[in-house]
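Bug #2210: token dump truncated for FLOWR protein?
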Amino acid sequence: MSSQDEQFQAAASDPAASSADDGMTWWYRWLCRIAGVIGGMSCAFAGLWNCVTINPLNIAAGVWMMLNAFVLFLCEAPFCCQFIEFANAVSARADKLRPWQKAAFYCGMAAFPVMLSLTLTTLFGNAIAFATGVLYGLSALGKKGDAISYARIHQQQKQMDEEKLTGALEGQA
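Reproduced locally. Full output below:
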């Protein structure tokens, strides 16, 4: 058995256990993955366009953007990187990360080239990659509660406020 087969088996051994506890629905997980792939494509094209200049900061930002594209493809769509032996293992590790960790990583990766060279190319090229981080960040917040539980919480807070108010009024009298 080759090392690539071992890595693939390690990646596919228990994906349900790691993804079931993050609270993301299947369609939201696919939305995040598709946003990551589109963000990788926009980073790659804008990074390449950004490198066609003589300004060294623009070239550095373009190279960083192409690195962002590679990392996004590696984490979100490892089938695009079939020529790399460790792609499935990296993708499996990225799937084990919590959504807030992915959010911080993707947003930080996308913000660095913009801070390095603030141009329209870097802004628009990193916008979708940053949006991918925002989507993962929103999933880290969790599901929205139902109206009944919010009404119960509101009712309990209202009762506690009334009890505090009556206790304060009795203490003054």
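Output looks complete on our side. Residues 1-20 have pLDDT under 50 and may be disordered. Marking as cannot-reproduce; reopen if the truncation happens again.
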